[in-house]
Amino acid sequence: MKDIYGKPRPDLLDRCDPDLQKLASFQVGGLGQKLANAPILVTSGICRDPHNLIDDGFASFPSGHSSASWAGLLYLSLFLCSKFAIAIPILPVGAAGQTSYSLPNKSSQRNATNGSRKAFPARNRAAAPPTYLLILAAIPVGTAVFISGSRWFNYRHHGFDILFGSLIGVVFAWFGFRWYHLPVRRGAGGSWGARSKDRAFYLGLGVPSYAGEEGWASLTADRSFDIEHEASVLDSGVTSNADHPTGRDERGTTSNSESSTPPK
Q1: Rounded to an integer, what distance in angstroms lies between the CA atom of residue 103 and that of residue 106?
Q2: Four-CA torsion 180, 163, 151, 179, nearest 10 degrees
């Protein structure tokens, strides 16, 4: 991208170190040819070190240091947040206006007969991470900010070049983390499983996922297993009834015959 855009760096003239005594020799155009004190256009031959100018002087956009630092260090911050469960505490939907809530436990079950339950404040629904973990997760981001800022005060890039390069790094860090790691809040520090060998490059027909061996076929097998299990249970019940086919009828007939016989 730097070679395609070719934007001059802020320190272009310092890199060039032009020899002003040879200005007329390298002049090729510009309004200064017709008007006094007007700008003139010269070739790179006027520079005392033309190789430094041509190789790196027109590579200001975008900032490579900014994009690389944000891509690597923001990924590290997200990784630390995932492993140490560093997330902003939130209340569940619909609980923001509640000042307390009831926590079901043994004591509340014992008090349920009396119609009372132990109440806990809503602030106990989540817990803020300790400060030292926040500092740990912020160190990589702070380092990326310092590296990006150094491109400004060292006159290596313009402000827009730094912002655009940082944006590139942030995008790559976010997508790189989400491609391989579970969400920070709900992932418990885990990562996604690897693709199975047979589905590494393509999914195929009749398979809803790249991971493991699960698929429509296994779901069908699970359903058939449940059906066979239910059928075996029903068969066992029918078999037990078949062993005593007239047990209930005989007992019912006996009871009826006994009840119908008049006492002597």
Answers
A1: 10
A2: 0
